[in-house]
Every structure is written in C-alpha cells, then in structure tokens.
Amino acid sequence: MLFCGKKSYFAAVVCIITLTATVTLSYLQLQRLSNRPKIIQEGSRCRGKITNSTITALKDNRTFIISPYFDDRESKVTRVIGIVHHEDVKQLYCWFCCQPNGKMYVSKANIDVHSDRFGFPYGAADIVCLEPENCDPTHVSIHQSPNGNTDQLPRFEIKNRKAEAFSVDFTVCISAMFGNYNNVLQFIQSMEMYKILGVQKVVIYKNNCSHLMEKVLKFYMEEGTVEIIPWPINSHLKVSSKWHFMQDGTHIGYYGQITALNDCIYRNMQRSKFVVLIDADEIILPLKHPDWKTMMRSLQEQNPGTGIFLFENHIFPETVSTHVFNISSWSTVPGVNILQHVHREPDRKDVINPRKMIIDPRKVIQTSVHSVLHAYSNSVNVPMDTGLIYHCRVPLQGNLPRESLIRDTTLWRYNLSLITNVNKVLHQTVL
C-alpha cells in the first residue's frame, strides 16, 4: 500500500508538472502570436512627419524616443532606445510601413526597462518589436495603441539597416556634457591622448557647455574627430546631476547618462570595432603596451570570445600637483593640466574600485555605467598591470597626506607628443 501510495503521489506530481509546462508553453505561444506584426492597412502610403530630434516625447509624455535600430542578432527586430516611466507605461506598439506595397503593419512591443534605474521613476528602456516578414522597413512610428491615425505620428528612421565595414577601430562615447562645461584644457588633453592611443572618433552627448568649449568642439568636429549628439533632456524631464535618487522631485539621474551610453553603443555597432565608455576626465592608460590597439589584441588573445573588458578607475586628485610641466601659455586656459597630477589615491579598504569599459558593441545588449547588464559574451576584469583608468578630478580621499598617495608617472611616457598636439589645438582655438 505504501509503495502504491508513493507511485500515485509521483504520478500526480508528474501530471501537475506536465500541465504547468503545457499551460506555460501555450501562454508563451499566445504571447509570441500577439507580438507578431499584423496588417492593419493596405495600399496606403507612409504618413507622419519624419523626425530628426535626438529626444522625441510621445503624446503620453511618459515615453521618450531616442532612436530605433535594426537588430537581427537573435531574430529580426527593431530595437528602440528610449526613456519610459517604469510604472506608467504599460504597452506600446510599433507601426511599420512597408514600401513599395504600402502595407501598414502593427507589432506589439516588449518594453524592457533597464534594471539600473537607481531609484528614479524614469529609466532607460529597450522597446523591442518583431518586424514584418518579407519587409525591411526603413521607418517606424511608436504609439500607445494598435489603432488610430498614423498621419499625426512622428516617424523615426531605423538605423543599422545595412551592414557596413568598420570605418574605425575605436570610438569613445562621452555621455552627458552638462553644467556649462568649461574644463577646456583637460578636455583638449584627453582628446589628444585618445588620438595618441588610437581613437578615430569621439561621440559626445551635449546638453550644454561654455562659449569657449563650443569653439573647441567646433574645431574637433571640423577635424572629423568629434560627433556631437544634441542632448536636451532637461527640456523633457527634471534631471538630477547625481546618479542615485534623492527623492527631490527629479525624474532621471545624471542627465540620462545610461540612455545615452546605450544609444551610443547601437549608433556605432556597425561602424566601430570597439566602443569605449568613459568620461572626458578619464583616460584608459595601457601599462604594458604603447596604445589601445596592441593592448586589445593581446587581451583578446588571452581571453578568446570575450567582448567586454573592464578597467579599474583610479583617482589622481587635482588638488595635489607637481611643478613639472608648468607650461606658462597653458595657465590662461580654463581647466586642469593633467601632466601636473601624477599622484593617485591608494585603494580604500573594503571598497571596490568602479570600472569603465572597452567593449565589442556587437556582443552587448544593454549596458549600465560600470558594467554590462546583458550581453552575448563574458566580461573580464583587466589586471591593473595591463591598464588602468587615469581619472583626474576632485579627491575622494581628501584628508590623505601627500606621502600617502602613490606617485604614478605613466602619463609622462606620452608627454612630448601630448604637449606638441595640445599646443597646436590651443593656437587654433583658444590662444
């Protein structure tokens, strides 16, 4: 009897598991079917005004569209980088127009709000829609409903539709230049260091900066190094200059930095071999190699298949300086002279140094600031003896005496080229 009871119990458990699995699979199939594009109009033409704005608010004023990108790494989808209210935005639809047949398709979106919101009500989001079969739509509209009039909806170009050969090896993404940014000297030094290390393109999401900084940016744009993405996020949301929510009525942290970083990855997915996610006051310094190209070749050989390389951030306080490289002509330029700051703070006990990244953008799905959230490859922490982030800023350990700091003159290996190049830029822009 006891044996039979066990058999009956086992059979019941198997039955329940089978039933649950069947129901779950049926639900997922229904979900997939409901997300498949459906024809809603035939013989019409694509309507709605094409928008070129970097940030476009939808009518609900809870959804903000940055840009759609074609993504066929798993299935044929349009992935729209956006910002949404994490509670209020429940459903969205992609409206695709297929030319030349004029068929209009609507596809229910999967709204994936990134996990790193840091408490703010608005966060970066991927709005992902399956694309119609036998159609490569060039534009898409986003709407709260599967029904309605497309005439009044803004239309967005779907980028990355055509595969391209890499035009550059390294692109630096600098998110959210704001606060009337005027650290001109350090910015020029960083730009010239990036170029020495092998960067061909720097993408800057610019909210605002000083008039003098505008002149410098214009120079680098005309040179072909800098691409400016206008970033008027404070026209749409109450922004915080801090990364975590302070319950002060702000909507999103650090001027929407995470959204800008994700957009920059997809924007450069087809054209750059690597994307570097750092700030303008940060430089990834190779210690064993002369430049990034040779460093990354070595790291990839040591870590085959890895697409995310994380470098430790180390603070070089701008309050501690040396008299070496006190260049008189630079003294009239606003900003920090990084060549005079070669003392770094020691590691703090029980505190993990944050990291910034060099990534293969084709292996990344979603990123945060100091780590990748979802990817198609592993991440590796780069040893400090291979490379570190030189971060010249206000100190984190301001009470430390000078003798407690670590003298690190790695930056001086590049001083001859750096001084020559910075002087050329200054004489064409500021001096």
TrEMBL record:
Cell compartments where the protein resides: Membrane
Enzyme class: transferase
Entry GO CC: cytoplasm; membrane
Key words of the record: Glycosyltransferase, Membrane, Transferase, Transmembrane, Transmembrane helix
The EC number(s) this enzyme carries: 2.4.1.-
Bilayer topology annotation: Single-pass membrane protein
Gene Ontology molecular function: glycosyltransferase activity
UniProt-listed Pfam families: Glyco_transf_92
Domain of life: Eukaryota
InterPro entries cross-referenced by the UniProt entry: Glyco_transf_92, Nucleotide-diphossugar_trans
Family recorded in the similarity comment: Belongs to the glycosyltransferase 92 family.
Protein's recorded name: Glycosyltransferase family 92 protein
Gene transcribed to yield this protein: Galt1_1
